[in-house]
Amino acid sequence: MFSRRVPEDRHPNRLAAALAEARRGGRPLIDLTVSNPTRVGLRYPERLLDALADPRALTYRPEPFGLREAREAVADTYVRRGVRMSADRIMLTASTSEAYSLLFKLLCDPDRASVLTPVPSYPLLDHLTRLDGITQRRYALEYHGAWTIDPVDLDRAWTGDTRVVLAVSPNNPTGSALTVRDADELVVRCAERRAALILDEVFCDYPLSDAPLPEPAPLQRHDCLLFRLGGLSKTAALPQMKLGWIAVTGPDRLVEEALDRLELIGDTYLSVSTPVQLAARRLLEGSAPVRDAIGARIRQNYAWLRHATADAPDVTVLAADGGWSAVLRVPSIEGEEALALSLLVDHRVVVHPGFLFDFAHEAFLVVSLLPPPDEFARGIGIVTERVHAA
Ligand SMILES: Cc1ncc(COP(=O)(O)O)c(C=O)c1O
Q1: Which domains does the chain have, with CATH numbers?
Q2: Cα of 209 to ligand 1 centre, how many Å?
Q3: Is residue 25's pLDDT more than 90?
Q4: Coil, helix or strand for 9?
């Protein structure tokens, strides 16, 4: 009766089940996995949502790529980052997740195409590929004081049916941004082998140092078809608004053909609501204080994390460039799952074990940098003590 796109085994893993149980108990938890920016005590400008009441939304104007004024507002965000981008090459979507699905429809035949995805990375990529009937093959990111793409592993994963290579920069959860060399390795291969590059940049506004994240030059060469993804969910810290986008660059002929085909896909779904499109510029610009507050918070928490673990021989904070999470390497004596379960059940601290993101080996813990700093500091104090006591 049902398709194989949805996995047979949909039971929560042991940790998720224990977390649900702990939440039912009602006692407070320190949640170092929180990723919802609207639930971490940040203040949003009071009138931010006024923009959604634009009376022009009473008239429906279906546009396959989205309303021009919203696409122009999105194009301006690239220009501010020093990336040349025309509104003509931007398509609006309901979310970044939907953008992936539309691009898989554009680029991949079901059961006859593979997508290369980085590992460790964002677990939802498993579902996004599977739900579109596409084979996912992983290529490794390697840590040697910084995370970079392993080009040998990228070639190992590449097969005759590879249509898309996916990169996430900064990556979730490693926080690693593509280096110039990484970008070159990807662009050269995609151009030569007629594959498209999808670059998920949802965390691009959140560097962990004071300087903005640099744009790797090979991405501006326009050698291969490149789809950049972003959205209000991270850029404006408003996941509930449901507005994402795809920005297309590359050789002109390929871009034109891609846009021509995307127009049909966009026209089929028309999934973005009119009010959010009309509000897009004001939401992008008006959310600047929240973006700044998140930036300050993740930098403060990351700096504290490094400070608090500087003298702990058994906890190492891995270097990261940006994003909302950090990775801790811990001894693999008892296993990630047992450690995360003990932190939850015995100490009421929630962390993600590395296996959820498919780290190549144990033992890693992933923590969110979004919690209020006092709570974050308390949680990290408990984690380091518990690791040390093992
Ligand atoms: C790397 C990455 N891409 C995409 C998304 C999903 O974004 P959206 O809410 O726009 O679908 C997330 C959400 O956490 C993410 O971490």
Answers
A1: 14-43+289-389 (3.90.1150.10), 48-286 (3.40.640.10)
A2: 22
A3: no
A4: coil
